[in-house]
Design brief:
Cytochrome Bc1 Complex, Chain D, domain 2, 346 residues, alpha+beta, 18% strand, 2 domains, 7 strands
Length: 346
C-alpha cells in the first residue's frame, strides 16, 4: 500500500512538473537551440521504430533498377528534394542550414534507409522534421520513381547528376523538353537561368562577351543599377552559388513559372533553385534584347534570350523574363519574376 502511494505521488509530481514546463514557456522551441541529448535520442528512437512498424510490410516494386524509372525520379528529386537533401556538387542551401533537425544529405552513402522505409517517409512525411507528406500531392508511382533514383544518387558525380536530371521526365523543370517542336510552353530552368544572363552568363558559357552582351546601353540610366542586380543574380545562379543567388531575392518574392507560383524566397530555395542552377551549367545562352526602367524605388527589367541546353535532349528555346525590383537598404532586390519560353522550329 505504501509503495502504491509513493508511485502515485511520483506520477503526480511528474504531471505537475510537465504542466509547469508547458505553461511557463520554459521549453525553448527555437530551431537554433538543439534538443538535450537524451531528448534527441528519445525522439530519434521513437521515429525509427515508428517508421519500421508502419513500413516493414510495404511491397517494393521490382522495377526500381530500370533506367527509365530512375531517370524519371531524378527530375522529381531535383524539384522537390534537393533544396533540403542536397545533390552531388551542392554543399549546402539556405533553407537546409536553418532546419532542425538538419535533413540528411542523401547524395552521401550510408544515409539511406531501406526502399520500403524511403517510400513511407516520402509519402507520409515526418512530424517535427520539416519533411512534408508528398503523398498528398503525388501518386505512389511517382514516389517509387523517387525511391528508385535515391538508390542511384550516391553513385553520381555532379555532371552525371545534372545529365540525369535533364533526361528525366518526372520533374517540373524539364516537362517542357518533352513537348513537340513548335509547341508553346513555359520552362522553369530555361527561363530562370538564361534570360538576364548578358555578359556574366555569356562569359560563363565561353561565348564572346561583346557578341552576347545585352543592350544595357539602351536602358535609362536609372535602370542600370537594377539591371546589374539582375545580372548578379544570374551570374551566381550560373556558377552554382545558390546561396548568393537567393540573397538577391526579396524574402517575399513572387515567382511565376509553368502555370505555378512560388510565393517566397524560401519556397523557391526549397523547390526549384538548385534545379535551375544545375540546368544552367549545361546550357548555351545568347541574349537577344533587354529593356527596362526605374522610377523611384521600383524598377523592371525584361530580357529575351536564345537558349540551347547541351544535354541528352538538346532543344532550341527562346525565353522571356521579366523581373520587378525594389530598392532596399542593401540595394536592389528582386520582388517578382515571370519566366516563360517557347520552342523554336529548326
Amino acid at each position: 500500500m505504501k509503495f502504491l502511494k509513493v508511485a502515485l505521488l511520483v506520477v503526480l509530481a511528474a504531471v505537475v512538473f510537465a504542466a509547469i514546463g508547458v505553461y511557463s514557456g520554459i521549453f525553448n522551441f527555437a530551431a537554433d537551440d538543439p534538443h538535450w541529448g537524451v531528448t534527441q535520442r528519445l525522439i530519434e528512437t521513437a521515429r525509427i521504430r515508428s517508421i519500421a512498424s508502419h513500413a516493414d510490410d510495404i511491397v517494393v516494386p521490382g522495377n526500381l533498377a530500370e533506367e527509365k524509372v530512375i531517370a524519371s525520379g531524378a527530375g522529381e528529386y531535383a524539384e522537390m528534394c534537393a533544396g533540403c537533401h542536397l545533390a552531388p556538387g551542392i554543399k549546402d542551401t539556405e533553407i537546409r542550414t536553418g532546419l532542425y533537425p538538419m535533413p540528411p544529405n542523401l547524395s552521401e552513402r550510408g544515409t539511406h534507409p531501406t526502399p520500403a522505409h524511403q517510400f513511407w517517409i516520402i509519402k507520409h512525411g515526418l512530424k517535427m522534421t520539416g519533411m512534408p507528406a508528398w503523398g498528398l500531392t503525388h501518386d505512389d508511382e511517382r514516389i517509387w520513381m523517387m525511391v528508385a533514383f535515391l538508390q542511384k544518387l550516391p553513385e553520381l558525380s555532379p555532371t552525371a547528376y545534372q545529365e540525369m536530371v535533364e533526361s528525366g521526365e518526372g520533374g517540373h523543370h524539364h516537362e517542357g523538353m518533352e513537348h513537340e517542336e513548335g509547341e508553346a510552353h513555359e520552362h522553369t530552368d530555361a527561363t530562370s537561368s538564361e534570360q538576364p544572363s548578358g555578359a556574366p552568363l555569356a562569359q560563363h558559357h565561353e561565348h564572346g562577351a561583346d557578341e552576347h552582351k545585352p543592350q544595357d546601353s539602351k536602358l535609362p540610366p536609372a535602370a542600370a543599377s537594377a539591371a546589374s542586380a539582375v545580372d548578379s543574380f544570374q551570374k551566381a545562379l550560373a556558377a552554382g552559388d545558390t546561396k548568393s543567388a537567393a540573397a538577391w531575392l526579396d524574402p517575399a518574392v513572387l515567382i511565376y513559372e509553368s502555370g505555378g507560383v512560388e510565393s517566397s524566397r524560401s519556397e523557391y530555395a526549397s523547390h526549384h533553385l538548385n534545379a535551375d542552377a544545375a540546368f544552367l551549367r549545361n546550357a548555351s545562352v545568347r541574349v537577344l534584347s533587354r529593356s527596362g526602367n526605374a522610377i523611384g524605388d521600383l524598377a523592371w527589367i525584361a530580357t529575351e534570350t536564345e537558349l540551347e541546353p547541351n544535354g541528352a535532349k538538346p532543344t532550341h528555346l527562346v525565353t522571356t523574363e521579366t523581373m520587378v525590383l525594389k530598392r532596399s537598404p542593401q540595394g536592389w532586390r528582386v520582388t517578382h519574376i515571370h519566366w516563360s519560353s517557347r520552342q523554336v522550329k529548326e
